[in-house]
Specification:
single chain; mainly alpha; Auxin efflux carrier
Length: about 130
């Protein structure tokens, strides 16, 4: 690959996440009706922070019988908050960007508690 193309792609790739975060912040700052998709966002947040890690643990530990350290890593990764990727897709396809942005915000805030609890549980079990 030519050096100029490689440099361009490296710069473009490095700018994607900051641009998504700025866009998300501007979208969240816009004034909207009070209950525009908030209940749906709470449901998605609960699924992301509770159901997905539990399902990941069940699949990794029970179904695939992976080693304990791999199970722990998988569960920890599944317990992370929703990233900006879903927001970029929702904005691109003009579908439920409000719900997606609220889910990102709520899951990021709630993950402070859920990740702390998960790490405490893992520490108590010697993980």
């Amino acid at each position: 690959m030519p050096h100029s193309v490689e440099t361009f792609l490296k710069l473009l790739g490095g700018a994607a996440s900051p641009c998504a975060l700025v866009s998300l912040g501007l979208f969240l700052a816009a004034k909207r009706p009070a209950d525009d998709g908030r209940k749906t966002s709470f449901v998605f947040t609960a699924i992301k922070l509770v159901v997905q890690p539990a399902f990941t643990w069940w699949m990794a530990a029970r179904v695939f019988a992976l080693p304990a350290d791999v199970v722990d890593m998988a569960v920890l990764l599944a317990a992370l908050p929703t990233g900006t990727g879903p927001y970029m897709l929702a904005e691109f396809y003009q579908r439920e960007a409000q719900v997606t942005s609220q889910t990102i915000l709520f899951s990021t805030l709630a993950s402070l508690v859920t990740l702390s609890l998960l790490l405490l549980i893992m520490q108590r079990h010697g993980i």
